[in-house]
Amino acid sequence: MAEWSAAVAAASFVVLTIALLAALRGLMKRLNRFEQTIRSIEAEAVPLLREIRGLAAEAGQVMRRTGRQVERLDRLLDAAQQWEGAVRRSASTVSRITEAVDRAASAHVEQAILSGRARIGETLDWAELGWSVWKWWQTKRAAAANPDRMADDMRDPE
């Protein structure tokens, strides 16, 4: 009797362990996809940062020249317009990056929570099935060992 109980308990533990490993594997895949998304966003932001640095350097040169030569005011205004466009693009890019990261993080966390709940529920269902089979087996075994006594209908002692 103890051998069967131990075997059923070990099998239930193995099933629970496999279910938890599957849930962890799915979570790791989602985290890897999230990391790839972040890296692609980062790769898109690098050229923009280079452009901003270049425009900032150009604006600095124009500012120095303007102090010496008033006739080059047109160049300063052009650099200022480029700077404005770059700032607007960078603000837009930062906003899009922030929104994308927020959406991705929220989606991954929600998916992980839903997936975890579903897998835990499934695992508990399997554990309950194992417990029911074990109780049924114990009842049949008791009935076979003592034919005079009527076995109860799989009643849980809880």
Secondary-structure map with pairings?
Blueprint: H1 2-68, H2 73-145
SSE pattern, N- to C-terminal: HH
Q: Helix segment count?
A: 2
In angstroms, what is the radius of gyration? 34 Å
- How would you describe the shape? rod-shaped
Residue runs with pLDDT of under 50 for 5 or more positions: none
What is the CA–CA distance across the termini?
20 Å
Largest sheet: none
How many E-type strands?
0
Average the pLDDT over all residues and give the rounded result.
Answer: 80
Number of domains: 1
Helices and strands: which structural class? mainly alpha
- State the helical fraction: over 70%
In terms of DSSP E residues, the strand content is under 5%
Q: What's this, in brief?
A:
The chain has 158 residues and is mainly alpha-helical.
Index terms:
mainly alpha
Report on the architecture of this protein.
This protein is mainly α. The chain has helices at 2-68, 73-145. The chain has one domain (2-138). The chain is rod-shaped. The mean pLDDT is 80.
